[in-house]
Amino acid sequence: MDELPEFKRETIDILRQPLEEKKVQIARSSGTYVYPADFMLIAAMNPCPCGYFPDMQKCKCSPYEIHRYLGQVSGPILDRIDICVETNAIQISELTSGVGVKEESSEEIRARVLKARQVQKERFAGTEILFNKNMEAKDIKKYCALGHKEKRLLESFFGKLNLTARSYHRILKVARTIADLSGCEKIGEEHLTEALCYRAADDKYWK
Question: For residues 180 and 30, what is the distance between their CA atoms, to the nearest angstrom?
Answer without folding.
Answer: 47
